[in-house]
Amino acid sequence: MSGSGIGTGRGTEIAVRADAVLGEGPTWDEARGVLLWVDILGSRVHTFDPAGGARTVMTTEQHVGAAKPRAGGGLVVNLRDGVGLYDASGAFSWLHREPVPGRRGNDAAVAPDGSLWAGSMRYDGGTGGGNLVRVAGDGSVRTVLPEVTVSNGTGWSPDGRLMYYNDTPTGRVDVFDVDPGDPGAVHGRRPLAEIEEGAGLPDGLTVDADGCVWTALWEGWAVRRYTPDGRLDRTVRLPVERPTACAFGGPGLRDLYVTTAATGADPAGQPLAGSLLVLPDAGQGLPQPAFAG
């Protein structure tokens, strides 16, 4: 479909009709059977139960780049000034607080070992103003990638030997080797795929059970699937210009959920901008670990 269309696009359905300023970070919470997602600039964490349609919304004290389930219940959140914890009762505490003027937390992911890999960026998008850090369950922090610009999608291959990563302005999906003796160390950075000019920029990503990488294309009206050797395997056109991230969820992890942003969108031409979309039976997802802290 063209960018001027206002339908959902072939095979695309509306999971939650919303007007999130900057929807991001869809994550399937297996323990609760709900889809978590955030509105970064709206400072909100949403849940959606696809079985019954129930929804909840929690407001955070700061802009929230990501929210992930914790192994013992509650959430870990990547906020403006660092990484915080909500326990099962909703009480908040800081795990790692490192405020930097003009910078905020952005996308984050939980690694196979239960650590949180939390990205950041400057509000003005300044080059090299963000980073990617690994936060262990005990709160210890290690900088994985310094001086990135817009830290976004992070994911791991099914065997845990590869890590995929998007620093959005590079226009690439990159891949690293994971050190088998040190899961917090990655090396050998190289492009998996380069997004051609005019097709959008790589934002959030997820890895499916076949080891293929799905990435949302900011300003690209689409999500794409790349094979482990970097071949473009599938493009799904969407009714919004700014899809932000994608993740498998629902029964059997077969449905691909896509968050979107209302910011910069014309409501008349993109009435679904800011909504949570879903591509039913799009593939087979991988179970996502909960944060170990």
Question: What do these coordinates show?
Answer:
0% of the residues lie in helices and 52% in strands. By secondary structure, the chain is mainly β. It has a single domain, classed as 6 Propeller (Neuraminidase).
Structural class comes to mainly beta
**Rounded Rg:** 17 Å
General shape = globular
- List SSEs in N-to-C order: EEEEEEEEEEEEEEEEEEEEEEEE
CATH H-level superfamily title: TolB, C-terminal domain
**Uncertain runs with pLDDT below 50, 5 residues or more?**
1-9
Mean pLDDT equals 95
Order of neighbouring strands in the sheet with most strands: 1-24-23-22
Strands, total number:
24
The CATH topology name reads Neuraminidase
> Could you say what the CATH architecture is?
6 Propeller
Number of domains: 1
- In DSSP terms (H or I, runs of 4 or more residues), the helix count works out at 0
N- and C-termini, Cα separation? 43 Å
**% residues in beta strands:** over 45%
